Amino acid sequence: xxxxxxxxxxxxxxxxxxxxxxxxxxxxxxxxxxxxxxxxxxxxxxxxxxxxxxxxxxxxxxxxxxxxxxxxxxxxxxxxxxxxxxxxxxxxxxxxxxxxxxxxxxxxxxxxxxxxxxxxxxxxxxxxxxxxxxxxxxxxxxxxxxxxxxxxxxxxxxxxxxxxxxxxxxxxxxxxxxxxxxxxxxxxxxxxxxxxxxxxxxxxxxxxxxxxxxxxxxxxxxxxxxxxxxxxxxxxxxxxxxxxxxxxxxxxxxxxxxxxxxxxxxxxxxxxxxxxxxxxxxxxxxxxxxxxxxxxxxxxxxxxxxxxxxxxxxxxxxxxxxxxxxxxxxxxxxxxxxxxxxxxxxxxxxxxxxxxxxxxxxxxxxxxxxxxxxxxxxxxxxxxxxxxxxxxxxxxxxxxxxxxxxxxxxxxxxxxxxxxxxxxxxxxxxx
Length: 431
What we know:
There is one protein chain. The protein has a single domain, classed as Outer membrane protein transport protein (OMPP1/FadL/TodX) (Porin). The chain has five helices and 21 strands. The protein has a 14-stranded antiparallel beta barrel with strand order 1-4-5-6-7-8-9-12-13-16-17-18-19-21.
């Protein structure tokens, strides 16, 4: 039964999931920026700058600006056991979205609002795949709301900041195992679902070193998500009867297992890590713009995950520590470059590349977060329908390196490989 508790908490670590970026983050917060390798810390394309660098908002080209868009995630994950058996997951397409609106109060001050989805995923390995005791399926959505204030200290240097309100919901399902004299058998399933609200902030500086060169730095704080959820176990009645009998005789182990396997509540805390971002943008000519970003993500905050079970039928028992799963993730870097070429007043073309390091450890690896170092290739364009209105398109291809991983309990091991195509569509309007 100990294994069932351990595997359950591993599944719950998917609370904030992922949409094909490393860890459980995603990078799809602007179609124009995606086309340039998702660079943006030093760019002043439009109001979407407020997410990449709040300090850049006051330097947006026009007094008012609006930008909205979404991407479609088409992701493929493969697992190959040590015996050579391959199983495949086709993640259900999701549409991470964003909306930004902003206005200049005067030449020194601008305000804006960003609504975007930096976390979220839908992953379904199937009810009977070989890793079903770790995860069967997961669905998760997180939306950030970021009011922003940006102030130009000089005509070259600006600072900006804004609080973040993070709202999320999730649903996770797994099979529950039990050891028997002839091996491990399934005794039921465990489902978790719920929602949470958490808070953080985003702050940034942008410096126009010259008419050609812009520099930027931004910092998004760590957000600790305290998840309160609902548990929906469906366990073999014969197992529950045996545990009930043991609990009635005063056996503390039977009592703990009974509380866990009939629980109706679940609690945990998970960090959304801080990130420190540096960027530079250079106008080679009136037609060619180059950009480069470096993102440093503080994944080391994710050292372990403790899962607590609550049960209204055993209120006097309190909360049980079901398990502590060691993660020991490491801080990671992402390197990005991008280019934009203005063909004429109506058409802009973009291309980009990035290399994204994984924070996951090969000896503490689970299939619900199949991390790997990734290479991203992107392209995009904008067509200016009118002077202030553009339609934006992007296409991102991501290739994850093949990775061999072993779960923390040494019970699940194999090779993982993932790839993804992510088309995006957006609209920008300014006046």
